[in-house]
C-alpha cells in the first residue's frame, strides 16, 4: 500500500480534525515545554553530582595549597569527632600548607547517600607529599585514607559539616596532618 497525502490515515495525522482546538493547544504547549526543558537543561547535575563536585573542589584546593578554595566548601556549623570546628580545620590546613605546600591527591570513586537536605559521602584518598626543593619532585611521604564526609544543604549549596578519616592500612594513626577530604 502506498501512503499519500490523500490517504485516510495520513490526513488524520496531519489535520487533527477530530481533536478539539483547546486539546491541540494543550498538546502543543506540552511538547514545547518538554522540548525546551531538554534544550535548556540537557544534563542538569544531580545532588550526588554536586556533592562529588564539592569533594573534587576541596581536593584541587589541597593540591594547590589554596586554603580559601578548600575552606569555601566548609559550613560555619562544621564540627568533627575530634572536636575541631571550622576555624580549627582552617588552622590545621594553614599549618600543613605552610609546612608542606601543595600535595597530590587521588580520589577513589565516591559513594553518596542522600537523606533530604543532608548527605554523606564515602571514598578513599591517596595523599602524596613531594619535595619541592629538588628539580624532580620525589615523593617524601604518602598516606591512603578512608574518608566519610557529612554534608548539609545550606541555601541550595552542599557544605561540609563533619568528616572522619581512617588509615587504609588499619592503623589509627592517620598522621593527623591531613584534615581535609
Roughly what is the average pLDDT, rounded to an integer? 79
Largest sheet: 5 strands, antiparallel
Query: Radius of gyration in whole Å, from Cα?
Result: 26 Å
User: How far is the first residue's CA from the last residue's CA?
Assistant: 67 Å
Question: What is the helical fraction, as a range of percent?
Answer: 25-40%
With helices defined by DSSP (H or I, 4 residues minimum), what is the helix count? Answer: 5
Characterization of this structure:
By secondary structure, the protein is α+β, with helices and mostly antiparallel strands. The chain is built from five helices and five strands, in the order αααααβββββ. It has helices at about 10-15, 20-40, 45-65, 65-70, 85-100, and strands at about 105, 110-115, 120-130, 140-155, 155-165. Strands 1, 2, 3, 4 and 5 form a five-stranded antiparallel β-sheet that branches. A hairpin with a 2-residue loop joins strand 4 and strand 5 (about 155-165). The protein is elongated, with a radius of gyration of 26 Å.
List its salient traits.
single chain; 181 residues; alpha+beta; five-stranded antiparallel beta sheet; 5 helices; elongated
Task: Describe the SSE topology.
Layout (H helix, E strand, L loop, with lengths): L7 H8 L5 H20 L6 H17 L3 H5 L14 H15 L2 E5 L3 E5 L2 E13 L8 E16 L2 E11 L14
Antiparallel strand pairs: 1-3, 2-3, 3-4, 4-5
Amino acid at each position: 500500500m502506498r501512503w499519500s497525502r490523500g490517504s485516510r490515515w495520513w490526513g488524520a495525522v496531519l489535520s487533527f480534525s477530530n481533536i478539539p482546538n483547546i486539546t491541540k493547544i494543550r498538546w502543543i504547549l506540552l511538547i514545547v515545554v518538554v522540548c525546551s526543558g531538554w534544550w535548556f537543561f540537557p544534563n542538569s547535575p544531580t545532588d550526588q553530582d554536586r556533592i562529588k563536585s564539592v569533594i573534587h573542589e576541596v581536593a584541587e584546593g589541597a593540591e594547590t595549597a589554596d586554603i580559601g578554595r578548600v575552606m569555601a566548601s566548609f559550613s560555619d556549623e562544621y564540627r568533627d569527632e575530634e572536636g575541631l570546628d571550622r576555624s580549627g580545620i582552617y588552622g590545621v590546613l594553614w599549618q600543613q600548607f605552610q609546612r608542606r605546600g601543595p600535595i597530590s591527591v587521588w580520589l577513589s570513586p565516591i559513594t553518596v547517600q542522600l537523606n533530604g537536605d543532608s548527605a554523606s559521602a564515602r571514598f578513599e584518598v591517596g595523599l602524596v607529599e613531594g619535595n619541592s626543593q629538588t628539580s624532580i619532585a620525589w615523593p617524601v611521604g604518602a598516606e591512603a585514607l578512608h574518608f566519610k564526609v557529612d554534608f548539609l544543604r545550606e541555601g541550595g549549596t552542599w557544605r561540609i559539616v563533619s568528616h572522619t578519616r581512617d588509615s587504609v592500612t588499619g592503623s589509627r594513626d592517620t598522621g593527623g596532618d591531613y584534615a581535609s577530604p
